[in-house]
Design brief:
Elements (H helix, E strand, L loop, with lengths): L1 H36 L12 H17 L2 E2 L5 E8 L2 E12 L10 E7 L5 E4 L2 E4 L3 H20 L7 E7 L7 H8 L8 E7 L5 H4 L3 E3 L7 H11 L17 H5 L5 E5 L18 H20 L7 H5 L1 E4 L2 E5 L4 E16 L9 E13 L4 E15 L4 E20 L3 E19 L2 E2 L9 E13 L2 E10 L13 E13 L1
Helix pairs in contact: 1-3, 1-8, 2-3, 3-8
Bound molecules: zinc ion.
């Protein structure tokens, strides 16, 4: 009887435990890293805090235990960043596993994950910690487990693998920028880079983003094939480099850099981004996928940027120095605002009415500073005078030169604009009477635009003021010279 009880006990306690242990020992390890990195003691890993110091010690211990070699004298790559008036010390943590192939070991694959987060704030005398479990204890934990994996399987890798836990990502990708800028590894040797940034929500997101994988020649095919083997659905791909994570400083010097990402499904940049919410089996799957993918890439005969990625790059002396925006693009644009007539010989003007235009625009990026933007708009413009409304339907064609005051890679810019416009009027009413373009009103008009705009990714927002330099009437009216004037908010979407 005792025996049977023991066996039963063993069965109920041990068998489920063993099954559980088999499927998720890795998941448990990942969970433990995230639990510690996102714990209240680490205070949300804010820049220059005691909390992030603890996180740093933890990561260094794990890198050491994994058997990584430091790049220089230690795992630390120190730098300073300016926050307001103060200089704050920051540290990347960098280790490597040398490759085994004599022909390939001088080439490097960087696996990165930022370990900083937003820290804490004091709100109503209470310390509110931004735990940053998904962002980015999840990526850091996966980085540590990949370091352990490749250390234990180092005979399988051809190229050298560099593991980088980046600091100061949240304040502007500083860690990754300095890693590239300070040539911690010669950027010319880096053939491929991954940023594991927010990888804790695989199941809920329904797949994995690998944005930028198309920047590597043949990258999409390999990544998709291995994803099939691991039963992962790849959601985002393509050669565009993500600019909101550590991929950007690498991509901007021509290195294919991939954002490994499971979406913004966690409480993004909120205190509630805690360790209990993450999908650790999903993270284990991501880790296994990355291990397989990086092993294959480390042994590939060649790792080269894809032609579509190169086509977007500016090359100087055979080196990619910047990813350039395409010379030409086009899209749809609308102008929404108001207009009125200016009575140039009177002390008064007419009142404003709603103006609206919609049409197409094209952009020719002549240099990093200048662009030319022609537009063709169906335009409803007019004015309100004492007795009634004045309404015209026109075809309006502005041609503006844009001067960039600020650019961030190819994805964002702020510009001022100026240029002429030409207008052909084909319809309209003054009060109840249709406009007579044969005898009374001018069929054509021209003038100038001035304004400014912002472009972020595919979206354009701006403001334009438009002034006619020609008269509305063919002959001088009773009020003297009358000209159109208008002001618009502009909204555009690039195709
Ligand atoms: Zn992040």
């Amino acid at each position: 009887m005792m025996k049977l009880l023991q066996i039963l006990l063993l069965f109920f306690v041990f068998v489920p435990f063993t099954l559980y242990g088999q499927s998720s020992e890795l998941a448990n390890d990942l969970k433990e890293h995230v639990r510690i990195l996102a714990s209240p003691e680490m205070e949300g890993r804010g820049l220059g805090t005691a909390g992030i110091e603890l996180a740093r010690e933890y990561i260094i211990d794990e890198f050491e235990a994994a058997g990584l070699e430091p790049i220089g004298e230690s795992f630390l790559h120190p730098f300073q960043i300016r926050l307001g008036l103060a200089w704050v010390p920051a540290f990347n943590i960098v280790g490597k596993i040398p490759g085994n192939d004599p022909d390939l070991r001088d080439e490097v694959i960087v696996i990165g994950a930022h370990y900083d987060h937003m820290g804490y704030v004091i709100r109503a005398d209470e310390k509110v910690i931004y735990h940053g479990a998904d962002d980015n204890a999840s990526g850091t934990a996966t980085l540590i487990e990949l370091a352990k994996y490749f250390s234990a399987n180092r005979e399988q890798i051809g190229r050298t693998i560099v593991f980088a836990a980046f600091d100061a990502e949240e304040s502007g990708l500083h860690g990754a920028r300095r890693f590239v800028g300070d040539s911690i590894v010669n950027p010319a040797d880096i053939k491929l880079m991954f940023s594991l940034d927010m990888v804790g929500m695989l199941e809920e997101y329904g797949g994995l983003d690998m944005k930028g994988i198309g920047a590597l020649d043949g990258g999409e095919e390999v990544a998709t094939r291995i994803a099939g083997e691991k039963d992962i659905r790849i959601k985002a791909r393509g050669h565009q480099i993500e600019r909101r994570t550590d991929t950007w400083p690498f991509g901007n010097v021509g290195i294919p850099a991939i954002h490994v990402f499971t979406g913004l499904t966690s409480p993004y940049h909120q205190p509630e981004d805690t360790y209990d919410l993450l999908d650790y089996d999903g993270m284990a799957t991501v880790k296994k996928y990355m291990a397989r993918l990086v092993t294959e890439y480390s042994n590939a005969p060649q790792l080269q940027p894809s032609s579509s990625f190169i086509a977007a790059a500016r090359v100087v002396d055979g080196q990619v120095v910047e990813i350039r925006r395409p010379f030409f693009n086009y899209g749809i644009i609308s102008h929404i605002g108001s207009g009125h007539h200016k009575y140039r010989d009177e002390f008064f003007d007419a009142n404003s009415v709603f103006n609206f235009g919609i049409g197409l625009y094209a952009q020719f990026h002549l240099s990093n500073k200048f662009a030319l933007q022609p537009e063709v708009l169906f335009d409803w413009n007019g004015s309100k005078w004492v007795e009634d409304n004045f309404r015209r339907q026109s075809l309006t064609a502005p041609l503006n030169i844009q001067y960039n005051l600020f650019t961030e890679g190819t994805d964002a810019r702020v510009f001022v604009l100026a240029g002429p416009y030409f207008r052909y009027n084909f319809g309209g009413k003054a009060g109840d009477i249709s406009m007579d373009y044969d005898e009374v009103f001018n069929e054509t008009e021209w003038g100038y635009n001035i304004g400014f705009g912002v472009e972020i990714s595919r979206f354009h927002f701006g403001f334009t003021s438009r002034r006619a330099l020609t008269d509305i009437y063919q002959n001088e009216s009773a009020f003297g010279e009358i000209r159109d004037a208008s002001a618009y908010f502009t909204f555009g979407i690039k195709f």
